[in-house]
Amino acid sequence: MGGDGSTSDGPTAEVRCVAAVPCWVSLMARDLDTARAFYGPLLGWEFEPGPDRFGPYEHAVVGGEAVAGVGVAGGGWDMPVAWTSYFGTESADAAADAVRERGATLAVGPLSFDAGRLAFAADPAGAVFGIWEGPPGRARRLDLLGAPVWIELRTPDPFAAALFYGEVFRWDGRDPERFEVRWEHDRVVLRAEGHSVAALAREQAGGPTGLTPHWEVSFSVPDTDEALVRAERLGGSVLGPAFDSPYGRVARLRDPEGGRFAVISAKP
């Protein structure tokens, strides 16, 4: 996944905006201590303080790299506990206009935030995502245990979703040496700088995860089955048995406050 540095409420000046693909993930929690106690030992995270303009916020750090944001909404905001994936863009305002023009929901923003602009939106099927305009950077894959290594939209119609996101983030006409959209493993796959970084996959409403359409964040672990056992010991819950995918062994989990995510270990 591309990008580095963020806040739970949105990226910071440290984020490098990777246009057209997810470049950051963040968790909106209810209690930072609870989030630290769960994700720290599960994913090997350490935590460092970050900007707290909209409420308490910290970076999750692995091997000296900031890999995610974890924060608590301030100002009386009543937001569900959830992971959000942010797409980079050259213009948050243009992306926001495109969201509205295509019948989707612009929930917040665009707002000026540190060195860039951000917004929150939901696609026509209801999947929530972030929009981030910041200092431009190049995509890179964080090959670190505990880092988010795969972002996947679970939606009933991935082709309709691809058309929507392609128009919002201008997938057509980008440099094919740096950005590519392809069909592989029954998914619409986004590739940046030679790496597959995200996908749009079919999942029927009320499918195995029991969720409405959503962007699912998968974090790298050395052993998915061991991670399931550890997650339950830490107060989380397992949303189904582990399974093998084209990208590794995957399991879907819920943290103690209800935030849903996945873990993935590399194929042997």
Tell me about this structure.
By secondary structure, this protein is α+β, with helices and mostly antiparallel strands. Helices cover 16% and strands 40% of the residues. The protein is built from four helices and 17 strands. It has helices spanning 32-43, 92-101, 158-168, 224-233, and strands at 22-29, 46-49, 57-62, 65-72, 82-88, 105-113, 116-122, 128-133, 148-155, 179-184, 187-192, 195-202, 214-220, 237-238, 243-245, 248-254, 260-265. Strands 9, 10, 11, 12, 13, 14, 15, 16 and 17 form a nine-stranded mixed beta sheet that branches. β10 (179-184) and β11 (187-192) form a beta hairpin. The longest helix has 12 residues, at 32-43. It is globular, with a radius of gyration of 17 Å. The model is unreliable at 2-10 (pLDDT under 50).
Write the SSE topology.
Blueprint (H helix, E strand, L loop, with lengths): L21 E8 L2 H12 L2 E4 L7 E6 L2 E8 L9 E7 L3 H10 L3 E9 L2 E7 L5 E6 L14 E8 L2 H11 L10 E6 L2 E6 L2 E8 L11 E7 L3 H10 L3 E2 L4 E3 L2 E7 L5 E6 L3
Sheet of most strands:
9 strands, mixed
Helix content: 10-25%
Category from helices, strands and their pairing:
alpha+beta
Average pLDDT number: 85
| Rg result | 17 Å
Order of helices and strands: EHEEEEHEEEEHEEEEHEEEE
Strand content: 35-45%
Q: What's the β-strand tally?
A: 17
End-to-end Cα distance, whole Å, is 21 Å
Query: Spans of 5+ residues with little confidence (pLDDT < 50)?
Result: 2-10
Q: Globular, elongated, flat, extended or rod-shaped: what is the shape? A: globular
SS element count, helices: 4
